[in-house]
């Protein structure tokens, strides 16, 4: 059981490194960063307590929101999905990503207290 | 059929008897009439005030102090060119005996010319009254037609009242029916306030003048004014509720109204009030009533009868159709002759003798008071197990028992007495029968209620053991007082009957009685401010800060490993500007966190954002062009290589 799981994972990683274009890997690295940041914040909240609850919420939602926006960017610039996004060029996707992030972080900074 | 008629007549009579007619709640007392006279007796400053004073006092039946002086004043101040001036002088001179205002032919023609459709109602009224007072002829029909046409143009209360007053001076042959109808129209304009008052919104003066004019005209044409009895009483309430008057004209209008209501052919309101408190007793057995008209003149020709007098508690009738006798202007009845028991009685009094009387059925509450005497006051100390015989001591009011009584926890102290009406010998049950025990040393007092049994014998028993909590178990000598009081008793009683020594079993109470510390400063309340939340130690916070920031390092490492670089960085102006703008926006976020509020941030963000957007748009467009060109060239190269 463990052996098959391990082989599945290694196979997955291999295919990933080989087939994914570099751009997408960059975005994936960013996604991992965001994920870890959010996880560590949540861990702090579990261990130490929710004292400045608004700060915790704003930080956590910042991570969640950024993650979602980055996922959207990844979907839109993936050449595989070009057929679904005929009207959206990669530059347009990036511009949308930047704008949405600005709005998100405006709200986050407002709430961080 | 006959039964039905009998039934309906019974119902009708029941309704009539049950109908509660309105009686005046406000009226002038003799002192108010005197005050009115004083106001009107002030020395006159001009012709108008002279008119008000002279005519007003005349209406009250009083004459001016110096009639000759007044007459000379009128003659010297009259102005023959002013209709109002002539009116005041003429009317005032009529009230003074032997005073004549000489009038020339020119003045007479001037007055007659004023009677036309072009003059105001006030002018028509003044000229008609003047002509009538001076005994000069006038054409009544012309006046009527002038008034009728003016009434349609001047619709206010004062004008129509003056029109009514004018019509009262005209000949009875003239057709006054149109003007007579105005009384009813004007009465409809009165405001009913709470069912008690009826007055014009223009105020007291307008209402009083209306009443005067309406009765003057009604008397003149000998037709009853269309005012119901209740309305007349409501008018009385309105006009006589004010007991001090703002101006001479207001006082004058009240005097006119009072005269009109006390002496007209149709409605004379009756004012009935008791002289002093409505109380009778053996010392004062006469019930005295003042029956007057609105000017406080006693109605000596009327006959005053008690239709029924019944006790409020037992509802049994004591009197039926008993007359009052008149003595010195006061109507008296000796109520004690009917031997009423003490208490309250409801009287229904009727004033008859004149068909004009209004509000002549009155309800009155009369109190019969008496004196009480305490008899058979017996004090005793009874043993609880009743093994030792009781020793009863009789005490007579107002002396005190010679020996004091001792009662400890095995004994009860008992008291019994009777309260008797001194005149009739009937047993009484007053409202207040209290037994008060007062400890002279500590100042403590305890009050109990003595209750009567079925035979009206009052009993009081003090169970020492049971009642020790009221006494705080303090033994000692207590002075015993009996308190008797009631509204119908003329001699309330406070009697120190005896001294009682009470012995309680356990002396639980402290030696000194604590006076209630009500007025001593209370303990201070310390306000507890909200404790700030416990924060984790700085070490923990710092550790986690480092932990949360660490993935950023990981990101940089991964990016470098993936080969991210800025080799493609074009130094075009839009590119640089875009990055600068974007960096500025991030900086603005930090500044927002530390210094700014949302409005300021949005302002700066709008500026920076639009700038960055334009630069970024340019930059990305250039990038897109480059990418498409690169794709096309690579596709072309691939196509070429395939070929």
Concise overview:
Chain A: Pfam families: DAD. The complex is a heterodimer of chains A (113) and B (643). Chain A is mainly alpha-helical.
Structure description:
The complex is a heterodimer of chains A (113) and B (643). Chain A is mainly alpha-helical. Chain A is built from 4 helices and no strands. Chain B is flat. Chain B is built from 16 helices and 23 strands. In chain B, α3 packs parallel to α13 and α15 runs antiparallel to α16. Chain B is an alpha+beta fold. The interface between A and B is medium-sized, with 31 and 35 residues.
- Give me the side-by-side strand order of the main sheet of chain B: 5-13-11-7-8
Poorly predicted segments of chain A:
none
Query: What level of helicity do the residues of chain A show?
Result: over 70%
Binned strand content of chain A: under 5%
**How much is the average pLDDT of chain B?**
86
The counted number of beta strands of chain A is: 0
The Rg value of chain B, from CA coordinates, equals: 50 Å
* Total E-strand runs of chain B: 23
Helix/strand order of chain A: HHHH
Q: Of all protein chain pairs, which has the greatest interface, and how many residues does each chain bring to it?
A: A-B, 31 and 35 residues
State the main characteristics:
heterodimer; A: mainly alpha; 4 helices; B: five-stranded mixed beta sheet; five-stranded antiparallel beta sheet; 16 helices; 41% helix; Ribophorin_II_C (chain B)
């Amino acid at each position: 059981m463990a052996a098959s799981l391990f082989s599945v994972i290694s196979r997955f990683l291999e295919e990933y490194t080989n087939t994914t274009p570099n751009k997408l890997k960059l975005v994936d690295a960013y996604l991992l960063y965001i994920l870890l940041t959010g996880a560590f914040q949540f861990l702090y909240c579990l261990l130490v307590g929710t004292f400045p609850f608004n700060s915790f919420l704003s930080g956590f939602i910042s991570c969640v929101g950024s993650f979602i926006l980055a996922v959207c960017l990844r979907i839109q610039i993936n050449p595989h999905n070009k057929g679904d996004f005929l009207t959206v060029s990669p530059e347009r996707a990036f511009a949308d990503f930047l704008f949405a992030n600005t709005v998100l972080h405006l709200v986050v900074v407002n709430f961080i207290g | 059929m006959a039964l039905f008629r009998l039934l309906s007549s019974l119902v009708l009579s029941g309704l009539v008897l049950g109908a509660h007619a309105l009686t005046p709640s406000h009226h002038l007392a003799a002192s108010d009439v005197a005050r009115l006279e004083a106001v009107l007796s002030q020395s006159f400053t001009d012709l108008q005030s002279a008119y008000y004073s002279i005519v007003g006092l005349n209406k009250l039946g009083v004459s001016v102090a110096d009639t000759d002086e007044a007459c000379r004043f009128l003659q010297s101040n009259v102005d023959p060119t002013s209709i109002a001036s002539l009116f005041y002088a003429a009317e005032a001179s009529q009230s003074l005996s032997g005073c004549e205002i000489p009038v020339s032919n020119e003045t007479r023609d001037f007055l007659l010319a004023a009677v036309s459709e072009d003059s105001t109602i006030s002018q028509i009224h003044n000229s008609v009254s003047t002509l009538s007072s001076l005994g000069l002829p006038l054409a009544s029909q012309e006046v009527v037609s002038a008034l009728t046409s003016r009434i349609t143009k001047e619709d206010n209360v004062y004008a129509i009242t003056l029109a009514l007053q004018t019509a009262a001076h005209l000949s009875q042959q003239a057709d006054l029916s149109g003007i007579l109808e105005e009384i009813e129209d004007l009465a409809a304009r009165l405001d009913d306030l709470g069912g008690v008052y009826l007055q014009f919104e223009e105020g007291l003066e307008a209402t009083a003048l209306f009443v005067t004019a309406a009765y003057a005209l009604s008397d003149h044409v000998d037709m009853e004014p269309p005012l119901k009895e209740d309305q007349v009483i409501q008018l009385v309430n309105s006009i006589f509720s004010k007991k001090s008057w703002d101006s001479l004209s207001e006082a004058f209008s009240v005097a006119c109204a009072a005269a009109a209501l006390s002496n007209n052919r149709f409605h004379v309101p009756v004012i009935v009030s008791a002289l002093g408190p409505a109380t009778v007793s053996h010392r004062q057995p006469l019930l005295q009533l003042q029956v007057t008209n609105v000017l406080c003149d006693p109605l000596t020709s009327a006959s005053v009868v008690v239709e029924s007098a019944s006790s409020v508690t037992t509802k049994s009738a004591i009197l039926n159709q008993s007359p009052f006798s008149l003595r010195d202007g006061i109507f008296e009845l000796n109520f004690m002759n009917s031997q009423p028991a003490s208490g309250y009685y409801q009287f229904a009094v009727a004033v008859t003798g004149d068909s004009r009387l209004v509000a002549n059925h009155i309800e009155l509450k009369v109190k019969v008071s008496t004196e009480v005497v305490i008899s058979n006051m017996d004090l005793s100390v009874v043993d609880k197990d009743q093994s030792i015989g009781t020793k009863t001591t009789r005490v007579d009011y107002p002396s005190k028992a010679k020996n004091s009584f001792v009662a400890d926890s095995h004994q009860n102290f008992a008291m019994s007495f009777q309260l008797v009406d001194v005149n009739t010998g009937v047993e009484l049950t007053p409202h207040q029968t209290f037994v008060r025990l007062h400890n002279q040393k500590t100042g403590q007092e305890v009050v109990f209620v003595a209750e009567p049994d079925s035979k009206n014998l009052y009993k009081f028993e003090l169970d020492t053991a049971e009642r020790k909590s009221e006494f705080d178990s303090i033994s000692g000598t207590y002075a015993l007082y009996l308190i008797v009081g009631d509204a119908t008793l003329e001699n309330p009683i406070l009697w120190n009957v005896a001294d009682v020594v009470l012995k309680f079993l356990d002396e639980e109470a402290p030696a000194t009685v604590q006076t209630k510390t009500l007025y001593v400063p209370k303990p201070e309340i310390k306000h507890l401010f909200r404790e700030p939340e416990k924060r984790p130690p700085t070490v923990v916070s710092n550790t986690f800060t480092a932990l949360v920031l660490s993935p950023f390092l990981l990101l940089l490492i991964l990016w470098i490993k993936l080969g991210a670089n800025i080799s493609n960085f074009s130094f075009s102006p839009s590119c640089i500007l875009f990055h600068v703008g974007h960096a500025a926006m991030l900086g603005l976020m930090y500044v927002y966190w530390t210094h700014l509020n949302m409005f300021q941030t949005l302002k700066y963000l709008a500026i920076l954002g639009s700038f960055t957007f334009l630069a970024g748009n340019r930059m990305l467009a250039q990038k897109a062009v480059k990418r498409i060109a690169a794709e096309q060239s690579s596709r072309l190269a691939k196509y070429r290589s395939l070929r």
